Amino acid sequence: MKILKFESLILLLLLIFTSCSKDDSLAVEPADYSINLNLAHETDWEMADAILVLINEHRVSVGLSTIERDQQQASAHAVKHTNYMIEMNQINHDNFSERSEALRQNGAIRVGENVAFGYTNASDVVFAWLQSPSHKLVIEGNFTHSGFGVIAKENGAYFFTQLFYSK
Description:
- It is a single chain.
- The chain is an alpha+beta fold.
- It contains six helices and four strands; from the N terminus they run ααβααβααββ.
- It has helices at 2-19, 45-61, 73-88, 96-104, 122-131, 133-139; strands at 68-69, 110-117, 145-152, 158-166.
- Strands 1-3-4-2 form a four-stranded mixed β-sheet, sandwiched between helices.
- The N and C termini lie far apart (68 Å).
């Protein structure tokens, strides 16, 4: 019986020491949220600016401050997501947490997002967003900046990603 207890004790000690060893290769590396800022140039800025004008007109009409256009980080991430939606051929908020964290690492304290597909002009997409309670909440949120991923498909219908954030 003493031999069995001794063997059990040795086995237990081996498990403890091997499971507590440190292996640097298992260390979790911080996520890299860097992005090519040139992606922002893929946005249809004429359409994006028209959307921003309409959203700011709405915000002012309900007593809110206007938001500024971000043609760098937020727009690059918005374009990347819009391209992803085009590839998937569906609108979604997949990987929003990654876009949000990327903007937070660049000073954002709050992030929101609206997406859409199929509209061919700014007034129609903004009207649709304002008719949707969840999209309207984002438009009327406590945000200071917005980035755009607005890209037309071959048939002229657009995919839209609008990222909102506050600094």
